[in-house]
Amino acid sequence: EDKVVQSPLSLVVHEGDTVTLNCSYEVTNFRSLLWYKQEKKAPTFLFMLTSSGIEKKSGRLSSILDKKELFSILNITATQTGDSAIYLCAVGCGNNDMRFGAGTRLTVKP
Amino acid sequence: EAGVAQSPRYKIIEKRQSVAFWCNPISGHATLYWYQQILGQGPKLLIQFQNNGVVDDSQLPKDRFSAERLKGVDSTLKIQPAKLEDSAVYLCASSFWGGFPDTQYFGPGTRLTVL
Fold this sequence. Notes:
The complex is a heterodimer of chains A (110) and B (115).
Chain A: E1 3-7, E2 10-14, E3 19-26, E4 32-38, E5 43-49, E6 56-58, E7 61-66, E8 71-76, E9 85-93, E10 97-100, E11 104-109
Parallel strand pairs in A: 2-11
Antiparallel strand pairs in A: 1-3, 3-8, 4-5, 4-9, 6-7, 7-8, 9-10, 9-11
Chain B: E1 5-7, E2 10-13, E3 19-24, E4 31-37, E5 44-50, E6 53-56, E7 65-68, E8 75-79, E9 88-95, E10 105-106, E11 110-114
Parallel strand pairs in B: 2-11
Antiparallel strand pairs in B: 1-3, 3-8, 4-5, 4-9, 5-6, 7-8, 9-10, 9-11
């Protein structure tokens, strides 16, 4: 059975800290791995990763995929209170499947 | 560009009642998805449409859930009759094309509470 596991489930840090969120997966026919940020509303797209070892970067956020070890990390540097959200990892697999992890709830305190 | 629209935003019903949700995807997006997100969990795909055809409904509880996208644009998801465990946020997403690679854009969701 395809599965996507995120860790930690929740994390509390202070502004300025750097955090690393983890996503590991076991799926058939891996296509892509996506990171989403979910605040009170809909998940918003952050990154899509398809190749190992190529870092995607957007401002203070970056992500990388390891297809050999079957995981990805999402790094956030110099965290701000606005980074507080649930971060979802999703893996495109099979013919048309998209499997989501349970998410990591990040809380950034002032 | 306008995002994915969903209505209603909130719905409270009693068990055994029926409920319907509506979704209008981003213009031009051929693929439409309905997800169920239970509190504390990631979204679970219920059904995927490509235009007006069903691509994947393997996780849709067909005894009580149904969905349609008759004209290949907007879609409705219905639950009849609702159970307590159906309480969740129902997310609609759309993408330009459902193949690989694929980025989905989500609507604001409908929060359903079944009492």
